[in-house]
């Protein structure tokens, strides 16, 4: 299963590090995860921070997303519902967000058309399982007759 996810992830990587094939990187990624089980290094962290070129000691100097979450959770327990849900955050802290947003499940076609007309070009974000998302650009010309279901 992890190998299948890796193949899907690595297809989106523009350029592989010099001297590595996708398969070599996958096996190195497994080695990194085995030698740092407490870090739970994600595929994107592995590539972005260049874990493939670091020693185990150097890898241990990084704070991964999982580690940061575990460290912050006791201090943010009351705030966690607001921080984990983009929609909940946007609804409660709109005044601190410096961009327009529209929650389609609670809007109508007229509100959607007005939103697209105001910004001319928007990014649709559709939540999909496993905390991922799918973005799609929509312009004013293409948005007049389209109202995507479940997009933020």
Task: Walk me through the topology.
Elements: H1 2-10, H2 22-35, H3 43-48, H4 56-59, H5 65-76, H6 80-84, H7 86-92, H8 109-119, E1 121-128, E2 132-139, H9 140-143
Antiparallel strand pairs: 1-2
Question: What this model shows, in words?
Answer:
- 7% of the residues are buried.
- The longest helix is centred in the first third of the chain and has 14 residues, at 22-35.
- Strands 1-2 form a two-stranded antiparallel ribbon.
- The chain is built from nine helices and two strands; from the N terminus they run ααααααααββα.
- A hairpin with a 3-residue loop joins strand 1 and strand 2.
- It has helices at residues 2-10, 22-35, 43-48, 56-59, 65-76, 80-84, 86-92, 109-119, 140-143; strands at residues 121-128, 132-139.
- With 152 residues, it is mostly helical.
- The chain is 47% helix and 11% strand.
